[in-house]
Amino acid sequence: MRNITKEFYNLITKKNRNFSVNLDSNSVSKINKLINLSAEKKFDLRNKKNLTSLDLSDLKKIDQNIRGKYQKKLVKILKPKIKKITKNILVDDELSDLRVGGQCKYKKIYKSSVNNKIQYKKYKNLKDYNLPLTDELLCFSTKPHQDLSNQGFRSTMSLIFYLQLTDHYNETCLMQNAKFKNKSGLCDFDSDEHYPNAIKREISNRFKWYVPKNMKPGKIFVMDSITPHNSNSVSSIPRLAINVKIQPRSLHYVYKIFNLKKSFKNDLKFNFEKLEHDLQQCVVFSNSLNFELAVLFCMQRKFDEAFETFNKFTLSKFPKIKIEKILAGALFRKTYETVTTSDVKNIYNKNIRYADLSCADSILRTFK
Question: Among 294, 316, 317, 364, whose Cα sits 20 to 30 Å from the Cα of 204?
């Protein structure tokens, strides 16, 4: 396997935040067999006619059985592969809760009697997206977004391992990525349109969206919580895909990717200052790490520096209340729409208690 650490370095420092790794044919065959079992029917995932014959109930069965009946078998196949990819930057316990999710899209429904029953709901809570896929999620394209919020603002390096199981047909709803123009960072998002972290339309319209050529069957396509992505229009051939999401539980990966030596002591003030110094070295190369640096400043009650640094992380200036809500999400492991007024007030509390597995908690775990 090629130098994967370098691939992760490119992932967080370049404007195009994705790469792919080959998946062996034996694993591909095992996964395809489980997809057939999930659909409770035999079909060829690489055959256009077979795919077109799938109906909505077939895709719902696939999604349900991926999350349930065949979850353990899929994890058994994919966990060793992902562990091999991440072994130089993550530690074993960061893969302990690995779960496989379905990423299927159906086809455009032309019968008005059926189509009228399926409306694109405006989801207000991203927890809905962890539930089995509903008709509207299967039948409509995914809006442009970044995954930082629906990962509870845990890390800009929350990783998404995406496996496209069907070919790239022009008539298929495929995932698209966008390359940043000047620097990578957080796009302003709309909390009212479709779901809470949809990139504002005037911003997404300026991106050049593309279907990655290296996102195809036989590949594990890797991106992170800052990668802008969506799906193109739903058409006449279903798309079958699965994914795995991994959230780092410390900033251990920063030291591995940038080849820095960890030198912490049993002294919280010293450790805060040392991590601050190390991150300030890294943000010169990786703008997205300004997010973790802003959270670190907030934990030290350096609020002016936190807001200033956060605005370096974003691609446009955010209002103060929006920054406060995002910082609260990072301290209390909450998605943007679930942060309360009380949470915002608590970021200024001297006796603050950070949520387990939050971004703040991962900073503290870095010192161990």
Answer: 294
Residues 18, 205: Cα–Cα separation, whole Å: 20
pLDDT on residue 190: 87
Q: Is the CB of residue 232 less than 8 Å from the CB of residue 176?
A: yes
Q: Give the span between the Cα atoms of 306 and 287, in whole angstroms.
A: 14
Query: What is the domain partition of the chain in residue ranges?
Result: 4-246, 261-365
What pLDDT shows up at residue 93?
Answer: 80
Task: Provide the token pair at 329.
Answer: 């999400």
4-246: which CATH topology? Jelly Rolls (2.60.120)
**Minimal CA–CA distance to 215: which of 164, 278, 265?**
164
CB 217 within 8 A of CB 343: no
Cα separation of 302 and 206, whole Å?
34
Quote the CA–CA distance of 197 and 149 in Å, as a whole number: 7
Instruction: Give pLDDT tens digits for 15-64.
Output: 999 999 999 999 999 999 999 999 999 999 999 999 999 998 999 999 99
* Contact assessment for residue 229 and residue 173, using Cβ atoms and an 8 Å cutoff: no
The pLDDT value given to residue 115: 47
Q: The dihedral of CA 135, 212, 94, 126: what is its sign?
A: negative
Biggest CA-to-CA distance, the chain:
67
Cα–Cα distance between 340 and 338 in angstroms, integer?
6
- Cα 294 from chain centroid? 20
Quick one: which of 268, 45, 314, 328 has its CA closest to 163? 45
Say how many C-beta atoms besides its own lie within 10 A of residue 172's C-beta: 24
Instruction: Judge whether 186 and 336 are in contact, CB under 8 Å.
Output: no
Q: Is 151 helix (H, G, I), strand (E, B) or coil?
A: helix
CA 132 vs. chain centroid, Å, equals: 18
pLDDT tens, position by position, 140-195? 788 899 999 989 999 999 999 999 999 999 899 999 999 999 999 999 998 765 67
E strand residue ranges, the chain: 18-22, 100-102, 159-164, 175-178, 189-190, 198-199, 209-210, 219-224, 229-231, 241-246
For residue 322, pLDDT beyond 50: yes
Predicted model pTM: 0.92
The dihedral built from the CA positions of residue 68, 69, 70 and 76, taken in this order, carries a sign that is: positive
Q: What is the DSSP letter of 336?
A: G
Structure letter (DSSP) for residue 186: B
